[in-house]
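Case study 2.
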Amino acid sequence: MTALPDIPLPTGIRSRYVENINGLRMHVLEAGFETRGRPCVLLLHGFPELAFSWRKVMPTLAAAGYHVIAPDQRGYGRTTGWDADYDGDLASFRLTNLVRDALGLVSAFGYKSVDAVIGHDFGSSVAAWCALIRPDVFRSVVMMSAPFGGPPSLPFNTVDAPAKSAADDPIHRELAALPRPRKHYQWYYSTREANNDMHDAPQGVHDFLRAYYHHKSADWKDNQPYPLKSWSAGEIAKLPTYYVMELDKDMAATVAKEMPSAGEIAANKWLPDSDLAFYSAEYARTGFQGALQWYRCGTSGAFLAELQTWSGRTIDVRSAFISGKQDWGTYQRPGVYEAMQSKVCTDLIGCHLIDGAGHWVQQEQASEVSWSLVQFLRGAKAS
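Prediction:
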């Protein structure tokens, strides 16, 4: 393997590799490794991020007495052993196998359980499924920026009235038929073209990611989210274009319109260009397809039946939700944020919406997120 450049990490975090994790050679960032016998917390990143997204949180959790491990997940960064081919093994990216990745990593480090699994964005979904499937191992969970609506339901009471197929959601036709035609980003991310659109973006990967991160952050002043009424074209078309895109534009073109000025970039303290350069170099090297496979697993419906195995199950371990107050991700799927609080999580101690943060909450407002996580881990109620 060609030597990769060093990662610009804060003091106290090291980079290492762990072999034979469910077929992967997993790249992991680690803090609090100096002394043995510490309780462990597992941090799971989302898209388009890496373990690096936790760099500001890890030292605080380590200082609070925890062994903190944060992997580049399957499909991302310096973790290898996954298939980057659009026509490759999609099943390896399904949620239950991502849970198996997390279990394997925890076990490799010599833990029978962890005090908490903490996930952001798509990592929030993996963390939720970890807690749902193996509450004996993942003894608490914090979901960040993506609320969890519970496992998909089995068709119920259909003996005399067969269930309608969910395979053909009319919302896509309805979005395309709007006066301002639109499409949903998750289905766009599932297309064959999406990886090349971003990897070969006219503005380059670095400027693509700069605009993408800016557009979904609190720095973009039009991010003023509120609950939507229903999963209908007219309602979800109220979402910004990074979620419900213009029908004729790809994601690179979508975010290019919102590229921050040179002055705004220079003033950005939460993601200076030196940090963004690490993200952009990694994605320029790997492409985006491994990450996009996660979306395809969901939009294809191919693994719905497997997830229905847990139909009706709740998350019963101690849980919390953290998001940016300026993050539309909290509301992007109408009703999920409310369902998480009312019926999915039976021991949800709080939902903390942090002002001054959009979607990249642990990077935009690292101090407040770190404080909230330590309070959660110590048993205090996040408020």
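The chain has two domains: 13-152+304-378, 171-293.
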